[in-house]
Design goal:
163 residues, five-stranded parallel sheet, alpha/beta, globular, single chain
């Protein structure tokens, strides 16, 4: 998949398959409307209980085709060990400057899975850093115009309903 100079909408998440589950339909709709779409997975999913990192890579490549993506990449951060560090924020900010999305789609900050929550925090902070003119990053400063959030909702008998 060729790396475009920019994308219109970029979804960022902790694991391969998170985007497909939470907002794959939205990305398909955007692609059908002619928008350039992309996904950045933070980890390879090597700690997952179902399948290996290699299986997930093959599935991600197939999903990229089905979703009509113009870009997909993996940052190879450690699965089940995501931290909101400066290094991780800078890595994501560098991607944001390179791809220059107008819209980013991030995991909601209230998540049961720590990697999902932290991925959202990293990406949100990176959206700010990418726009700082004096930040020591490659590329021209860029801040997405809009942020949307996705969530994995798992309701049980005792789960409070969203208000």
């Amino acid at each position: 998949m060729n790396t475009p100079t920019n994308v219109d909408a970029l979804a960022l998440a902790a694991h391969r398959d998170d985007i497909e589950i939470t907002c794959g339909g939205l990305l398909i709709k955007f692609a059908d409307l002619g928008y350039r779409t992309g996904i950045v997975d933070f980890t390879a999913g090597e700690m997952g209980t179902r399948g290996s990192a290699e299986d997930r890579a093959a599935e991600a490549a197939a999903a990229a085709h089905v979703l009509g993506l113009t870009h997909r990449e993996n940052l190879n951060m450690p699965d089940a060990k995501l931290d909101n560090t400066l290094a991780n924020r800078m890595a994501v900010a560098t991607v944001l400057r390179r791809l220059r999305p107008r819209l980013v789609i991030l995991p909601h900050w209230r998540q049961r899975h720590p990697d999902h929550r932290v991925a959202g925090e990293i990406a949100y902070d990176a959206c700010f850093l990418a726009g700082l003119k004096r930040m020591d990053l490659p590329g021209e400063p860029h801040r997405p115009r809009k942020i949307l959030y996705t969530a994995f909702l798992r309701f049980t008998k005792n789960t409070p309903r969203p208000t």
